[in-house]
């Protein structure tokens, strides 16, 4: 037995103390890592729950509005203008920053300067406004979607949770925003692969390996919540897609040109409306935003009444009927939806353009089917036009073709979806710069306080 006063005993005692200290620090580090994981996992589950709640609230509001419009044809002429004015007033009064799509706001927040004068575009207050006012806007007949707003909702929740992460993990705030926004897209569309593509293609152009793990974890958890509560079926269900290689090649060529031009012009109009619109109407929107929203609501209501309600809401119902072959819409459905979505965007209401863009694309495919001799089996042409128009508007072709592929279980036409998305986005660039990043730069410039 060693003498406790001997050098070897003292050295052994020091070694044991040092080993115990290292072990305690290692346990503390593990606890910090697991605490960070729990915060991230809890946030991803929260994003999934918010996306599901937003979806159900919006669906109930739309169905209630459509039932009322069928019973009393004049109801939209009263409800839509009043609801539009009220939603804009509420947004500007209590939820500033919640207006618009939500994707440019998230991108702008990722580049925000460290300045005390910055007006936040991501917060828990904005989550409340985006969900409640966004559902009210869609449920009063405006042609808007909930998918883009869900990106801002998810990024806002993750932004709030970032402060609860242990500092030793060194997870940047921007990584949390990307994870939240991508989880929002995945849960809203029930398309996890599209969430990953969206994060890489739109929210950030260079993803580190560590951030990729964050994003994928958040997307998986949000997707699990969405599938648990909404079911595992695709967004539009399983669609029968038939056609030969020759039919597909012809459809891709025509669709890429038509959707590229139409989507590029649509994107250009949205950019002008957000950044550089001039004239008497633009002055009216700036000076009297509530009155302008009411006038936009009156126009949207008039379009809906004239078309028998085809232009109301996000367009999900009409798109699904077209894909399933259970409805035959008039040729003017796509132009009506195009105009109604543009007017709704001009109003300044919280709402996105993803779902309306898919509806416009389906309408274009419906109009092209007789010209290409594919009216008997238009499913392939419809999904190609949906991907092509969405890619042209967003100039995010990878996200577009993956979203549509997962929405309709369209793995059999994946090559066609890839081709039409890439070509349509290329054609769109001749008419418009990228929509979301252009609007984000404008928001960043407008929201940054001038130097003292």
UniProtKB/TrEMBL annotation:
<dbReference type="InterPro" id="IPR050368">
    <property type="entry name" value="ClC-type_chloride_channel"/>
</dbReference>
<keyword id="KW-1133">Transmembrane helix</keyword>
<dbReference type="GO" id="GO:0034707">
    <property type="term" value="C:chloride channel complex"/>
</dbReference>
<feature type="transmembrane region" description="Helical">
    <location>
        <begin position="336"/>
        <end position="360"/>
    </location>
</feature>
<dbReference type="InterPro" id="IPR014743">
    <property type="entry name" value="Cl-channel_core"/>
</dbReference>
<feature type="transmembrane region" description="Helical">
    <location>
        <begin position="212"/>
        <end position="230"/>
    </location>
</feature>
<feature type="transmembrane region" description="Helical">
    <location>
        <begin position="411"/>
        <end position="431"/>
    </location>
</feature>
<keyword id="KW-0869">Chloride channel</keyword>
<feature type="transmembrane region" description="Helical">
    <location>
        <begin position="71"/>
        <end position="91"/>
    </location>
</feature>
<dbReference type="GO" id="GO:0005254">
    <property type="term" value="F:chloride channel activity"/>
</dbReference>
<keyword id="KW-0407">Ion channel</keyword>
<keyword id="KW-0868">Chloride</keyword>
<keyword id="KW-0472">Membrane</keyword>
<dbReference type="InterPro" id="IPR001807">
    <property type="entry name" value="ClC"/>
</dbReference>
<keyword id="KW-0812">Transmembrane</keyword>
<dbReference type="Pfam" id="PF00654">
    <property type="entry name" value="Voltage_CLC"/>
</dbReference>
<feature type="transmembrane region" description="Helical">
    <location>
        <begin position="381"/>
        <end position="405"/>
    </location>
</feature>
<feature type="transmembrane region" description="Helical">
    <location>
        <begin position="250"/>
        <end position="271"/>
    </location>
</feature>
<feature type="transmembrane region" description="Helical">
    <location>
        <begin position="176"/>
        <end position="200"/>
    </location>
</feature>
<keyword id="KW-0406">Ion transport</keyword>
<protein>
    <submittedName>
        <fullName>Chloride channel core protein</fullName>
    </submittedName>
</protein>
<feature type="transmembrane region" description="Helical">
    <location>
        <begin position="291"/>
        <end position="316"/>
    </location>
</feature>
<feature type="transmembrane region" description="Helical">
    <location>
        <begin position="34"/>
        <end position="55"/>
    </location>
</feature>
<keyword id="KW-0813">Transport</keyword>
């Amino acid at each position: 037995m060693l003498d406790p006063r001997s050098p070897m005993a003292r050295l052994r005692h020091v070694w044991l103390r040092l080993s115990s200290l290292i072990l305690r620090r290692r346990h503390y580090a593990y606890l910090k890592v697991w605490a960070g994981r729990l915060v991230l996992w809890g946030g991803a589950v929260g994003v999934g729950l918010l996306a599901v709640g937003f979806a159900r609230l919006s669906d109930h509001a739309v169905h209630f509005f459509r039932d009322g419009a069928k019973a009393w044809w004049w109801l939209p002429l009263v409800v839509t203008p009043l609801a539009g004015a009220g939603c804009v007033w509420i947004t500007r009064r209590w939820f500033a920053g919640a207006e618009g799509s939500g994707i440019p706001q998230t991108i702008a927040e990722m580049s925000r300067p460290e300045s005390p004068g910055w007006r936040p575009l991501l917060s828990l207050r904005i989550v409340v406004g985006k969900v409640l006012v966004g559902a009210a806007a869609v449920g009063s007949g405006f042609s808007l979607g909930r998918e883009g707003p869900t990106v801002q909702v998810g990024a806002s929740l993750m932004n709030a949770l970032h402060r609860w992460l242990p500092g030793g993990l060194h997870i940047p705030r921007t990584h949390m925003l990307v994870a939240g926004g991508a989880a929002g897209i995945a849960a809203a569309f029930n398309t996890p692969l599209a969430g990953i593509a969206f994060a890489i293609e739109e929210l950030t152009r260079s993803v580190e390996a560590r951030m990729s793990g964050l994003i994928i974890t958040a997307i998986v958890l949000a997707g699990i919540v969405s599938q648990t509560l909404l079911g595992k079926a695709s967004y539009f269900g399983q669609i029968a897609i038939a056609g030969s290689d020759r039919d597909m090649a012809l459809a891709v060529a025509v669709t890429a040109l038509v959707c590229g031009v139409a989507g590029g012009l649509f994107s250009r109009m949205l950019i002008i409306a957000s950044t550089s619109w001039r004239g008497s109407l633009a002055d009216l929107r700036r000076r009297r935003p509530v009155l302008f929203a009411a006038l936009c609501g009156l126009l949207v209501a008039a379009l809906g009444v004239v078309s028998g309600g085809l232009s109301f809401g996000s367009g999900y119902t009409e798109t699904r009927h077209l894909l399933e072959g259970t409805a035959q819409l008039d040729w003017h459905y796509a132009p009506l939806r195009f105009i109604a979505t543009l007017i709704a965007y001009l109003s300044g209401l919280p709402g996105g353009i993803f779902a309306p863009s898919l509806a416009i694309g389906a309408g274009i495919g419906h109009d092209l089917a007789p010209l290409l001799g594919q009216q008997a089996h238009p499913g392939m042409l419809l999904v190609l036009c949906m991907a092509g128009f969405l890619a042209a508007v967003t100039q995010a072709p990878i996200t577009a073709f993956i979203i549509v592929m997962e929405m309709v279980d369209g793995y059999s036409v994946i090559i066609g979806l890839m081709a039409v998305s890439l070509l349509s986005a290329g054609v769109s660039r001749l008419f418009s710069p990228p929509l979301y990043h252009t609007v984000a730069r404008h928001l960043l410039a407008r929201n940054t306080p001038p130097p003292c």
